[in-house]
Design brief:
By secondary structure, this protein is α+β, with helices and mostly antiparallel strands. It contains two helices and nine strands; from the N terminus they run βββαββββαββ.
């Protein structure tokens, strides 16, 4: 389990996918790349996807992802992405009241239980008091980290 802070961009891609029954179907899938700008994110997703999609594809949307960090997993079955909302608890020294600040993370895991375990594995090494407020599975297909090959070497969209 490792985590990485970067500027992450969510990219929505539309293309014709060959289904298991051999029919072509127009699909839209979401991916995440790290980049320094929207222009670089567009270039990166085009490069990444051109190796996996035969034929044309369209980039429908690129937006800055709402994740502070991504927790990557080396587990073989970790093929899903979960959005985790954590609340960090601090004590206001003047008022002596508990203050909570919310931060979103993206967590790679095979199951919801695995995602929670991965969060606890990373956060357990810190001294920060936190609460897991929510963990939800996303529709993300894959995350392309700069300079790192995909864990599976091919996303699920291979034709």
């Amino acid at each position: 389990m490792r985590s990485r802070t970067a500027i992450w961009f969510e990219c929505k891609i539309a293309y014709e996918k060959t289904m298991e029954d051999g029919l072509q179907k127009k699909v839209t899938e979401n991916y995440v790349v790290d980049a320094l700008s929207f222009t670089e994110a567009e270039k990166r997703i085009m490069e990444e996807m051109s190796s996996y999609i035969s034929g044309e594809f369209t980039i429908k949307d690129i937006k800055i992802a709402p994740y502070k960090e991504i927790f990557f997993s080396d587990e073989e079955m970790a093929d899903r992405w979960y959005k985790a909302k954590l609340q960090f608890i601090t004590l206001d020294e003047k008022t002596e009241k508990e203050k909570r600040s919310t931060v979103n993370y993206l967590v790679q895991a095979g199951t919801l239980k695995g995602a929670v375990g991965n969060i606890e594995s990373v956060m357990g090494t810190t001294m920060i008091d936190y609460v897991i407020a929510a963990v939800n599975e996303t529709a993300l297909m894959d995350v392309f980290e700069y300079g790192v090959a995909s864990k599976n070497d091919k996303p699920e969209t291979e034709q």
